[in-house]
Design brief:
Strand content: over 45%
Shape: globular
Structural class: mainly beta
Largest sheet: 22 strands, antiparallel, barrel
Distance between the termini: 43 Å
Length: 601
């Protein structure tokens, strides 16, 4: 913590010395879509929403979404070793399977056990990332217990190709292209990459293609076809303390959707029909227990539509419905575990938004009916108040739930078909101050979790037993001009089990980040420091409780605009070669150098 404070102070002093030399650029109120049923200005959002745009992605030279999230307050990611290994996300202390992941509005969470592996989510084609902290089930239903992360791709005309190579046999080719011709538009992007870690069988190879084709019968209406396919292979170098030289994961996911939108004078209709297929294959010919193969195939089918009516500029109300069908097959060397296990949910929801010159108010309600666990009702209420032209207050209360996954319901020897959903209720209060180029956000929050699903040895299966509480404070300071940008944040978190009083594992009590971007002439220089404080964990070999010490990581990214079309770049991850483990037993990579060039139009 002392080292991070020194880095933070030094960077603030550096930025202050440059302020007189840079031009002024004021913050603009952006339209955000994830925390409301209709696009709403950032200043009218009653909940915390973090936004990462394409410019920030490019300036940080980050190719994975989980790496972008490292610098957000209240957001913590954990990778089990090198890139490509299992990666989990914790939002304000919530479990890694209690955050809903959306790709252009389509949920990506795996139906098997409800979570999402962030190792396989790249940044190609992403126009912006929006992160909503706190329960959001009033809009999205299950899994939005602790928050929502949404990736939104863009369609502004462009063409781009990235070629890069680096240490650990890293090679990557990424491309994206978008254009429009009269009544048609398209957006295509993808990548091919491969690389090794620091141990035998510590590799990660990935290929992805994605795209959207839209037909525009008018300026206010369009119908599209969206596709995304990812094919990845990851070597698993260790099984506890034992080296595993042939253990491997093959992962494929395919998303297909038909989105649509129609906008009229006072109302609009949006929605989609979609299907996601997951294929997970685990193999280890050298497994000492004879478990040489396990395969899981899961399918999610969804349809969703929202109608929004705007009687005037101050008021809108949205109503919608969605239906979801989940199915999982799982088998291993020992036989079949799940054979076509299914679950269906139908949801009805509504949200009203009213604003004046000095205040805005939100009210939302959702009802879900499930063929396994019954029904759930999720309310939400929030408000913002303009106290002064430079000062705004906001507060909100909301509830969320996570339906028991098909694995938790039906997996042999642990499944329990009588499980109820996990539930959460949370509130937050915040102050936002903004003057010209400067901004400051201070947030305090508390979320309580109940009915948490865990395995009970006495009962011989999963039961609803756990209760937990997460509360904390988040501080974020920002400065933005045409030649300099500074973002600093500090988070304090108290996340504990209310059953045992013990801290929840892998959630740091304090964390922080600093991102400083300089734009002198044709150069862009980004310096990023990520601090993660001590946190409770478990020893990977003995399974005894342990404490993972703090660490401080520095990243450097350099871009040079050689011409209008060519931009060479260089990035150094973990520039100080810090030795640390995001999870005990899984050493993170040391200093890693990568160079590349971007061809753009």
């Amino acid at each position: 913590m002392i080292r991070f404070s020194i880095v933070l102070l030094g960077s603030l002093l550096l930025s202050s010395s440059l302020l007189a030399q840079v031009g002024q650029t004021t913050y603009q109120d952006e339209l955000l879509v994830t925390a409301t049923l209709a696009a709403t200005e950032e200043s009218e959002q009653p909940v915390t929403v973090h936004r990462i745009d394409r410019q920030q992605i490019d300036e940080r030279l980050v190719d994975s979404v989980e790496d972008l999230l490292l610098e957000l307050p209240g957001v913590h990611t954990v990778t089990l070793g090198s890139p490509g290994q299992q990666t989990s996300l914790f939002v304000r202390g919530a479990e890694s399977d209690q955050a809903l992941v959306l790709w252009n509005g389509i949920p990506l969470n795996d139906p098997y056990f409800g979570g999402f592996n962030w190792a396989y989510l790249p940044t190609e084609g992403v126009d912006r990332v929006e992160v909503v902290s706190g329960p959001v089930s009033a809009l999205y239903g299950s899994a939005a217990v602790g928050g929502v992360v949404q990736l939104i791709t863009g369609d502004a005309p462009h063409a781009r190709l990235d070629l890069e190579a680096g240490e650990n046999a890293h090679r990557r080719v990424a491309t994206s292209v978008s254009d429009r011709f009269t009544d048609w538009s398209f957006d295509l992007h993808g990548h091919w990459r491969e690389g090794d870690g620091h141990h035998p069988n510590d590799f990660y190879d990935s290929t992805e293609v994605a795209g959207l084709v839209r037909y525009h019968p008018s300026e206010q209406t369009w119908l599209g076809a969206r596709v995304r396919h990812n094919d990845s292979q990851t070597g698993i170098p260790f099984d506890g303390a034992r080296a595993s030289l042939e253990r491997q994961i093959d992962w494929q996911e395919t998303q297909v959707a038909v989105p649509f939108e129609a906008t009229f004078e006072q109302w609009d209709v949006t929605g989609y029909l979609g299907q996601i297929d997951y294929d997970y294959l685990f193999t280890d010919p050298q497994d000492p227990f004879g478990f040489t193969e396990g395969r899981t195939e899961s399918v999610s089918r969804r349809v969703r539509s929202v109608v929004t009516v705007r009687p005037n500029d101050d008021f809108w109300i949205g109503v919608g419905a969605d239906h979801e069908e989940l199915e999982v097959d799982d088998r291993s060397s020992y036989g079949s575990n799940l054979d076509g296990a299914e679950q269906e949910t139908t949801g009805l929801f509504s949200q009203a938004h009213y604003s004046t010159d000095r205040a805005s108010f939100d009210l939302g309600l959702r009802y879900d009916d499930n063929d396994v666990y019954g029904s759930e009702t999720s309310p939400r209420v929030g408000a913002t108040f303009l106290i002064h032209p430079e000062l705004r207050l906001r507060a909100s209360y909301s509830e969320g739930f996570r339906a028991p996954s098909l694995g938790e319901l039906y997996f042999p020897f642990s499944g329990n078909p009588e499980l109820d959903p996990e539930r959460s209720e949370g509130w937050e209060a915040a102050v936002h101050w903004q003057r010209d180029r400067w901004s400051l956000d201070l947030v305090t929050f508390e979320t309580r979790f109940s009915n948490l699903i865990s395995y009970d040895f006495a009962a011989g299966g999963n039961i609803n037993l756990g209760r937990a509480r997460s509360r904390g404070t988040e501080l974020q300071v920002g400065y933005r001009s045409s030649a300099l940008e500074l973002r600093a944040q500090w988070s304090l978190l108290d996340a504990e089990s209310l059953e045992t009083g013990e801290p929840l594992r892998r959630r740091p009590d304090d964390s922080g980040s600093l991102a400083l971007t300089l734009r002198p002439g044709r150069w862009t220089i980004n310096l990023r420091s990520i601090y993660v404080g001590p946190r409770a964990d478990v020893d990977a070999v003995t399974f005894a409780d342990a404490t993972n010490p703090s660490h401080l990581r520095h990243d450097l990214a350099l871009r040079w605009q050689l011409s209008d079309r060519l931009t060479p770049y260089l990035k150094v991850v973990n520039a100080a070669d810090e030795e640390y483990q995001e999870a005990l037993g899984f050493p993170a990579p040391g200093r890693t150098l990568t160079a590349g060039i971007t061809f753009s139009r």
